[in-house]
């Protein structure tokens, strides 16, 4: 796979060698159940709490406020379903946005079946939620708002501080899906007006199948998994210790490298655009021009359909995406691009490049050259 170029890190990332190394002993020697009182269990418990401390420190949170889950999806479900159910006697109105990940949207749709009402806020053409729309949507029975930190398809960073500050005044719970922003933006929950925040290990070079929900003190939540009393009775099930240790190591590596990664991703975006300008091909960058995550680059090449571009890139061993992994493979237009109300020719030719730690600026240049060749070949023929 060495001649392959992978630009789909928003879908998932490879496990960092240091992460694998940190995890291995917890799959072999230290296999105890953290709930057991004997030595094997105590050793596992110690590792679990050390991992919790590390991840909490990385996001400037109280370690006790972290609940480990089996994915970012589960963290979103726990926040939304658990947060709504705990408050159902207070009110049954929830607000989210049209551009959320399906883990949030489908959890909200489930709540609609359970008697909740959900308002799905629109976004502007940059993919940003407008505070004015949120203010208008709030009702006396609104109990929960969920707005993502950074969008996984176009990269737009939402006005989380403004939204959270407004909701604090109103006394309404605020959850943010920070799965995609975590690791590329500095997230310090103690300084953020959020009550719940979801993260996932496999988006930051940790293993798949581990996530966490930050839950501020005194925030009411009902568990969605029922069983043992793990995670202070908020998430039953024996902890994925090796995965959690890997998650912690991934945050450690990220902490050390974040600044360098971010500047590399910015240079990659610049390099790709320089190639396209030089080649004289038309392109349009989707998402917000400034409030955008450095690793997500969503670009349209009008005249070349998304699926055609992806297939042609795959032929030259370049992996990119149409946006969300869940909608690729189907020709259906992404709900995010739809919500942005771009012209059809723009949304039907959108490609998402998402960068990761092993990518180089040279790779970005070569990928951009490949794109330029494809555009020149296909648009000339048309
Ligand atoms: C990947 C992703 C998720 C889901 O996380 P998993 O750990 O894959 O379940 C949720 N939200 C966003 C924004 C994501 O990018």
TrEMBL record:
It comes from the Bacteria. Residues 5-364 form the Aminotransferase class V domain. Its EC number is 2.8.1.7. One of its GO terms (molecular function) is 2 iron, 2 sulfur cluster binding. InterPro entries: Aminotrans_V_dom (IPR000192), Aminotrans_V_PyrdxlP_BS (IPR020578), Cysteine_dSase (IPR016454), PyrdxlP-dep_Trfase (IPR015424), PyrdxlP-dep_Trfase_major (IPR015421), PyrdxlP-dep_Trfase_small (IPR015422). It catalyses: (sulfur carrier)-H + L-cysteine = (sulfur carrier)-SH + L-alanine. Keywords: 2Fe-2S, Iron, Iron-sulfur, Metal-binding, Pyridoxal phosphate, Transferase. Gene3D superfamilies: 1.10.260.50, Aspartate Aminotransferase, domain 1, Type I PLP-dependent aspartate aminotransferase-like (Major domain). It holds the Pfam family Aminotran_5. Its cofactor is pyridoxal 5'-phosphate. PANTHER family: CYSTEINE DESULFURASE (PTHR11601:SF34), CYSTEINE DESULFURYLASE FAMILY MEMBER (PTHR11601). NCBIfam families: PRK02948.1 (NF002806). Belongs to the class-V pyridoxal-phosphate-dependent aminotransferase family. NifS/IscS subfamily. This is cysteine desulfurase.
